[in-house]
Amino acid sequence: MVHRVLVTLALACVLLSACSGGPVRRVSEPAASIQQLTVAADGNWSLDLRLQNYSSVPMRFDTVTLDVRIGDQAAGQLLHQPALTIGPESADVVTIKMRPDAGARMFLADALASRRGVDYALEGSIDAAPADRGSSRSYRILRKSALSPMPGLPGVLR
After folding, report:
1. What average pLDDT score do residues 56-83 get?
2. What is this structure's pTM?
């Protein structure tokens, strides 16, 4: 009798675990950072922007709207629609061209000539959604970090 009850309980546990919904679906705030900044001969910039998906599901990145600061200088705004899906807990890079404000252009040119690094800040939003859902949500972004000149690569900071 006791054996039959234990077998019945074990079978019930197996059936309940088989009915579970699988892994937990976690949607987390994305992140953005500058992976590389390249200064072109005309003074315009090319930014390799790293988009990070911390969610446990693939996320679709629809719009990136970020104000860029280099040192204490406002450089301008990045407005990009990557239309990019990034897998769970992964990252990808998009390249965005920008024409920086004069003060930021001069500040960065001076830093490169002196071979010194610069602080930067990104502030704004990323609109993203799970890849299998329709409408996106706006996530607030604030990232502060630094870039250093790359030896042997003129005009490149990482």
Report:
1. 97
2. 0.84
